[in-house]
Specification:
Elements lengths: L2 E2 L9 H8 L3 E4 L2 E11 L27 E6 L3 E8 L6 E12 L1 H7 L16 H8 L17 E5 L9 E3 L13 E3 L13
Antiparallel strand pairs: 1-7, 2-3, 2-7, 3-6, 3-9, 4-5, 5-6, 8-9
The chain binds a DNA duplex through strand 4, strand 5 and helix 3.
Length: 198
DNA sequence: CTTTGGATCGTCT
DNA sequence: GACGATCCAAAGG
């Protein structure tokens, strides 16, 4: 059975919500994929967070109510997506780093028409920018409500529990506070983006 | 197999 | 004006 993830799920801080997000499903129309890797980002207390230096036009969704999607543009060509957590104003969020495709693989493959070579299933959503390409997530989806599905993006629970003992490591791709063990993944899943442990 | 560099531009200093 | 919560292809061992 499948049920929507309720608003109160996001009330806790990002560090608490992040591992609970593992094995939940991201759904958009006929597309569905299981969350297998995430990272927690704090607010004013986390130097690696976009919210560290206060609210700006770019990060304002982080400062809003929980349960919404914070989408940002980076490296001149990539989007990444986060689930906003905690009370409004705290500006905490969980970055979706990797998914395991469940349905709609052909459409995901189309969204990711990059090079000429054929992509294996486990390469469709195995990275924060890749999963946005596969799901067609862009600037228009910043602020999307994951509970009401106002942009067709929802998080649902199909009964698969989060792993009792998730993989844990420092966060990827940041320079400051990289030692905080705030990255979590489903052990053994082939879609996890980085397999180095540190 | 690992390492490196290019792409590409909105955001903040 | 510098730099990213990245990805990919090409070069190197």
């Amino acid at each position: 059975m499948t049920r929507a993830v309720p608003r109160r799920f996001y009330d806790a801080g990002a560090l608490e919500v992040a591992p609970q997000l593992l094995n939940k499903l991201l759904v958009r129309r006929s597309l569905a994929a299981r969350i297998v890797e995430v990272e927690a980002y704090g607010g004013a207390d986390d130097p690696a967070s976009h919210a560290y230096r206060g609210m700006t036009r770019r990060n304002s969704t982080m400062f809003g109510p929980p349960g919404r999607l914070y989408v940002y543009f980076t490296y001149g060509m990539h989007f990444c997506a986060n689930a906003v957590c905690g009370p409004a104003g705290e500006a905490e969020a969980v970055l979706l780093r990797a998914l395991a495709p469940v349905s709609g693989l052909d459409e995901m493959r189309q969204g990711r028409h990059q090079g000429v070579r054929r992509l294996d299933d486990h390469q469709l959503t195995s990275g924060p920018a890749k999963l946005c390409q596969a799901f067609g997530i862009g600037a228009d989806d910043d602020g999307a409500d994951l509970v009401t599905g106002d942009r067709a993006l929802r998080l649902v629970d199909d009964g698969v529990a989060p792993p009792a003992q998730p993989g844990v490591s420092g966060r990827v791709g940041i320079r400051v506070a990289a030692d905080r063990p705030w990255r979590f993944w489903v052990p053994g899943d082939r879609n996890v983006s980085v397999n180095r442990i540190s």
